[in-house]
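Posting for a labmate who doesn't have an account.
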Amino acid sequence: LAETGSRDFIPRTAQAISLWEEYSIPSIIIHKHYLKKIDRSFLKECIIIDKSATYSCVNRLRYSKLSGALNIVIPEELLICDKFLSQIKGTLHPRTLHYVDFVLCNSREVVNYLNSNNKNVKTIDYVNPRLSRTKIEKNCSKYLLPKTNVKEIINDEFILINDALSLKFSSFDKELEVLRNQIFKSTSVNSETYLNNYLKQEEDDEKLLLKLIFEIRKDKILRDFKIIIRPHPSVDLDKYRIYFEKKFKNTSNIFIIRKGNVIEWMKESKITFHNNCTSSIEGYYSGLFNIFNFSEKEKYGVSEDFKEILLPLGIRSAIVNAKKLLQED
């Protein structure tokens, strides 16, 4: 039984289909808010797969654990950043870990943290199922994966920018409050410091995004391409669009689009730029190599597994490498 949020619904469905087709093990996939509505007797001897173990997850995981289930957490927040201790503490909260049996993660920092907090929690050393792109496409394409015709939306060659800005444009009105008062509650992390650093980094990332677009429009090879900016899935699209359309009012052929699946757009783009974005890893596992990280520095706490894929090139080198690829084509 997998309880899931929006981003990991398709990976969990791919798992469920494989469990049934390969092992005849049935699964139920539900939204996380409904786990506590399942009868306790049904949960006995179930395996629960959860996407997180934050402070706010404690009640549902406690409910399933005390009902006799075995709880496995696949922490989405640590997918590409599993060495940043503050983030580990918020994602795998000490209070919630009392009701967790296994965590799918293999970084030394996570293992050491778990050993120091709750020696009963074991780790599973395996790639996050979200990156099992072959299995996802095989199992889900018939039923779930959107069939967006990108060419009907943009009938020209385009550059895709996968934007990671999220907090400033969050679709969750109380996200700042939750970060400030809940996520790090009863941990040694100073939530104000964490939040201020996060917001400062987003300010820097926004400036970098605007600079990248300015440099693309200056470049003789790239300037005539249309630019598609794909916002982070957690942002309020209207809020994001209103803000950036004002920024781009003097620049033509820039479109803010979040329709369909990110991989569909990456497959159709001539070039994909990103700033330490998870989509680059999903693209890599989908066999795409037209992806360039324009960040100027490595993401703090980045996983050893993905350092090479997430190599920060800076704007200048990212553009140079992108042009080389275009010239090879």
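Reply:
Got it, the structure tokens are right above this. The longest strand covers residues 158-162.
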